[in-house]
Amino acid sequence: MGNHDHLHTPSADLANQTAKRIAIALILTLAFVGIETLAGIWGRSLALLSDAAHNLTDVMALGITWYAMRKSAQPADANKTFGYHRTGILAALLNSTTLILIAGYIFLEAYRRFVSPLEVNSEILIGVGVIALLINAGTAWLVRRGSEHDLNVRSAFVHLMGDVLSTVGAIIAGVAIALTGMNWFDPLAGILIALLIVWNAWGILKESVNILLESTPSDIDTATLVSSLVSVKGVNGVHDLHVWSITQGIRALSAHILTDDMSIRDGARIQREITEILYHQYNIGHGTLQLECAGCESVLLYCNVSEDRTRELHRHSSSGEQPSASQ
User: What is the CATH number of the domain that holds 232?
Assistant: First the structure.
């Protein structure tokens, strides 16, 4: 006996609105990249050039995010039975990786600037920095909505918020150079920007990898989850438990539920109660439950998925034997 429950995903209208805002942010950011690059070359400012490089990754990030959102909206089919939700996770992984790579380049260039300092035009640094701050803050505001529950959109938002803070750093560096004449404030600002980029990117990179590895969501304690399931009247045990995320906002679970030998009606009641617990207490809206009676149980809470295990189960199924509980 099995049960399958589905989580309702965000509406298509909300996704379309978010995609439109991302497209606008992409166009504004792309236009400014050219302006900031020219200003950085003219003013010999690493802070501006590093910010322009970061903005260029924002353009790529926004483009990838926009494409992933359109792709994720496609319905499930015979080839992608879970749909295309993981497209957004792949986009988040790519975006966070590019952030870390660009931070590495900034660290290298900052080292070169400390070894061989260049004179920086502080007026250009300050002027372009103020314009960058306004544009970055505006594009970040466009992308902010929906970033709390969508890792793909959040990766783009982090790109843009990194720009907001880094342009603040560039402006401060320009003021410090104007007041002191010490050009090393520029590569120092570049290093601080790079550290900020790495800090923001690491969390998204880690979460993306965990989702792709189908790890248990960090806020779910499996021992507590099992206790909740066993508390349902008629449930004698749980085994072959799997909890994972399809994407940040869609969680899934599969489990074998051990019960007494009972009617289909009583089994359906157990499934409904478990489904309610999963949804309301653990935000798991996509559950697959297999009810089993005494004699079918395994001692393993977590199923050991392997080719040897699959062949063993097939052999016992073909011969009519019961597999060993230790397998």
Answer: 3.30.70.1350
- To the question of pTM greater than 0.70 for the whole model, the response is no
Residues 6+ apart with CB under 8 A from 46: 40, 106, 109, 110, 113, 118, 120, 186, 187, 189, 190
Q: Are residues 30 and 172 in the same domain?
A: yes
> Is residue 129 a contact partner of residue 121, using CB atoms and an 8 Å limit?
no
* Domain boundaries, position 237: 222-319
Q: Which pLDDT tens digit goes with each residue over 17-38?
A: 777 778 888 888 888 888 778 8
* Nearest partner of 240 among 256, 228, 260, 224, judged by Cα: 256
pLDDT digits (tens, 9 = 90+) for 261-299: 888 888 899 999 999 999 999 989 888 898 887 655 555
Lay out the sheet containing 286-292: strands in order across.
2-5, 286-292, 250-259, 235-247
